[in-house]
Design a protein that fits this description.
Layout: H1 3-31, E1 34-35, E2 45-46, E3 53-55, E4 59-68, H2 70-79, E5 82-84, H3 90-103, E6 116-122, E7 131-132, H4 138-141, E8 160-164, E9 169-172, E10 178-184
Antiparallel strand pairs: 1-2, 3-4, 4-10, 5-10, 6-7, 6-8, 8-9
The structure holds calcium ion (CA) (2 copies).
């Protein structure tokens, strides 16, 4: 090896190493499985999508900003291999509210209001019997913090679930067009 070659290697190798790592990290983020780190449920996995935001130890979420009726929103999430978001803890609720605020209410269009969004619970089976779209009581699912005065079943016709921008659950008319939050269902043991 000539001295000129040695100098090239010394200068070029660190740069080449960083470049290679960049390519690998990009591929991991786009194509493969992310491993949760530092969670009590470490080892659970979630497969991210570019249009979903991933939160370690909780899941991946997307806030759809074009308003839809609750059942149309439910179908849209299913088409993305997800489901309307189900809240299993106060931590998950806080994260969704943080996410909602980050996207911003102003970005929600064609909606009756920007103050709340559809999520995955309802009382369509029995008035006042609020269950997740997977059929569990919301109390059993782990989060049932209603906004003040809710549920109020306005017009005896509020049977779908939503989450307030300011925090807390609200029952709403299922036909009301609202933004909505989808959640990927790829985490083993999580809804
Ligand atoms: Ca109701
Ligand atoms: Ca209500």
């Amino acid at each position: 090896m000539t001295s000129a070659t040695s100098i090239f290697v010394l200068i070029a190798l660190p740069w080449m190493t960083v470049a290679t790592q960049d390519v690998i990290v990009g591929k991991l983020e786009n194509d493969t499985i992310v491993q949760d780190q530092g969670c009590s449920n470490s080892g659970q996995r979630s497969i991210p999508r570019d249009d979903y935001e991933y939160y370690a130890c909780l899941g991946s979420y997307r806030l759809h900003t074009r308003g839809m009726a609750w059942n149309d929103a439910r179908h849209t999430c299913e088409q993305e291999d997800g489901h309307l978001a189900i809240i299993n803890s106060a931590a998950e609720a806080a994260t969704l509210i943080q996410f909602y605020r980050k996207v911003g209410t102003a970005s929600i269009i064609h909606a009756a209001t920007q103050e709340f969004v559809h999520i995955g619970f309802h009382d369509l089976y029995g008035e006042g019997d609020f269950v997740t779209i997977h059929g569990d009581s919301i109390y059993k699912a782990g989060y049932s913090n209603w906004a003040g005065g809710q549920p109020d079943n306005v017009g005896n016709n509020e049977n779908c679930g939503s989450l307030y921008f300011g925090g807390g659950l609200n029952d709403v008319n299922c036909q009301m067009k609202l933004g909505f939050i989808c959640e990927l269902k790829t985490r083993v043991g999580f809804e």
